[in-house]
Amino acid sequence: MPTTYQDIIVAGHGYSSKSRPDQIATKATELLKLASRAVRGIYAVASRVNPEYFGDVLSQPYSAPVTGWPRPTQAQTVFHIEVGVGGPECAVVPLNDRTAELSRPAVYHLGKVYRTAGNSLGPTNADALALYYSKLPAKPAAMTDIIDSTWEESFDNFLSIEMAMYLAMKDGRLDEFNGLAPERAKEAQLFIDFLSFATPITSYRHGQPRMAALPSLLPLLAGGKD
Q1: 210, 67 in Cβ contact below 8 A?
Q2: Within this chain, do residues 27 and 90 fall inside the same structural domain, yes or no?
Q3: By C-alpha distance, which of 17, 4, 44, 3 is closest to 167?
Q4: Are residues 126 and 64 in the same domain?
């Protein structure tokens, strides 16, 4: 069965004898926000380590009202752009240096919109841009909503510990929060290793595969850096 927000809230309460699972129904709105924050934090970690893993692509047509190609509302990180799916790669250049890339199509980003940089290679208003992005998790409306269709259920325990730490912070139980931190760090490292080596057979023409260090990612999780 897919993991729901209620599943991780109940499991999070189970980490402390001082938690009050009997209050889940009466505090559903507050707890759902905490659980959603925990999920967002973990997806933010994923976008730093392996943005392709929870990735998707949107073929975005030019929008005249905003004079460009709107950034996907569900995007955490846009990590690759093409002119048409499978077309030439489109560079992203700084607003104040729009001629930084003249050997391929180029856009710059302003106000949640990608706008043409104006070089001779495009893109033009007739083109759609294929925007590849690491997605944000779906925002929950109810406790019974599933985490996200892309979530890896083998890491449910990671989410449960995050939830337990948020509850401990909220209630001022710093001893329990500090006691959970090492276990959270282990779960986070397992998650990072899973993402880092999801497809180790990838061939790179230039450079090396991205690597992420656990200390630099902990601030995205409950309570920040240890």
Answers
A1: no
A2: no
A3: 17
A4: yes
Q: Measured between alpha carbons, how far is 37 from 57 in angstroms, rounded to an integer?
A: 24
Question: pLDDT tens across 57-101, in order?
Answer: 999 999 999 999 999 999 999 999 999 999 999 999 999 999 999
Tell me how far CA of residue 165 lies from CA of 19, 65, 116, 176, 208, in angstroms: 11, 45, 45, 8, 35
Domain count for the chain, please give it: 2
Distance (Å, rounded) from C-alpha 30 to C-alpha 12? 14
Residue 167 is encoded by which pair of tokens? 């509850």
Q: Is residue 202 part of a domain?
A: no
Please say whether the beta carbons of 69 and 60 come within 8 A: yes
Question: pLDDT tens-digit profile of 96-145?
Answer: 999 999 999 999 999 999 999 999 999 999 999 999 999 999 899 999 99
Average pLDDT over residues 29-53: 92
Residue 205 lies in a domain: no
User: Which residues lie below 8 Å from residue 182, measured CB to CB, with a gap of 6+?
Assistant: none
Cβ contact 222:158 at 8 Å? no
The model's pTM? 0.86
Q: 94 is in which domain, residue-wise?
A: 55-135
User: What is each CA distance from 38 to 159, 221, 223, 224, in whole angstroms?
Assistant: 7, 7, 10, 12
